[in-house]
Specification:
By secondary structure, the chain is of the alpha/beta class. It has helices at about 5-20, 55-65, 75-80, 150-160, 175-180, and strands spanning about 30-35, 40, 70-75, 95-100, 120-125, 135-140, 165-170, 185-195, 200, 215-225, 230-240. It has a single domain, classed as Dihydrofolate Reductase, subunit A (3-Layer(aba) Sandwich). The N and C termini lie far apart (about 45 Å).
């Protein structure tokens, strides 16, 4: 079982971080996902590989219950068909949100049979129609007329306007990388499984066109949940000296 002390440490830390968050223009954003020791999410893009053990999964569900919304990309919907509900602990279900530029979310996806919430699909596609009855489309226009992806900064601003004060981002790799590139991650909770996969990495290229950026995690905390290591901390953005 997961140590109750570890669960409480993470919860207390997260409450403290959210309490000190100053912005009213976007939610407080926690990035949380599970990976192997070598940083892999899966063997190949589009395939499913679960790294979280029973104990670390309890922490993931605990984190879900502590956020107003939970966000994934359409790739994760199509490959994993997750529920994104709270089942391994007590607590409310967060609002499910999918980044889906082409509105490919299947009408029979588990997110479309959510026990108490309609799934929000965020897109930059103009005049988009819901692909299912239990889906609400949130359109965020893209200044690039050739792109139908919703700009992340505008998307999270809209989510805040819709009442999402805290947002948990679970992935997949493209979404993880995009939020890190955009500097839209306030807290990181990472599950590291004792496995070597040599597969598809969780984090892609983070370097902007105008120079190098290093993302430090400081302060950093850690604990063990079953066989998995849980690390968590605050993300600090800075440009290293030449």
């Amino acid at each position: 079982m997961t140590s109750p002390n570890l669960k409480q440490q993470i919860e207390d830390w997260l409450h403290s971080r959210k309490a000190s968050f100053q912005s009213d223009s976007r939610p407080f954003i926690t990035l949380s996902y599970a990976q192997s020791w070598d940083g892999s999410l899966t063997t190949h893009s589009g395939e499913t590989l679960c790294f979280s053990g029973e104990e670390s999964m309890q922490i993931t569900h605990q984190l879900r219950s502590l956020h107003d919304g939970i966000l994934i990309g359409i790739g994760t919907v199509l490959s994993d068909d997750p529920q994104l509900t709270v089942r391994e602990c007590s607590g409310p279900n967060p609002q499910p949100i999918v980044l889906d530029s082409q509105l490919r979310t299947p009408a029979d996806a588990k997110l479309c049979s959510h026990p108490d919430r309609r799934c929000w699909v965020v897109t930059g596609k103009p005049d988009a129609q819901p692909p299912g009855d239990n889906i609400e489309v949130l359109t965020v226009p893209n200044k690039d007329s050739e792109s139908q992806r919703a700009p992340l900064d505008a998307a999270v601003k809209l989510l805040r306007e819709r009442g999402i004060k805290s947002l948990m981002v679970e992935g997949g790799a493209n979404v993880i990388t995009a939020f890190l590139q955009a500097g839209l991650v306030d807290a990181l909770v990472l599950t590291i499984a004792p496995k070597l996969v040599g597969g598809y990495k969780a984090v892609g290229d983070l370097q902007p066109t105008n120079g190098n950026t290093v993302l430090d995690i400081n302060p950093l905390y850690s604990g063990q949940a079953g066989q998995d290591m849980i690390v968590w901390g605050e993300l600090q953005n800075h440009r290293p000296e030449a």
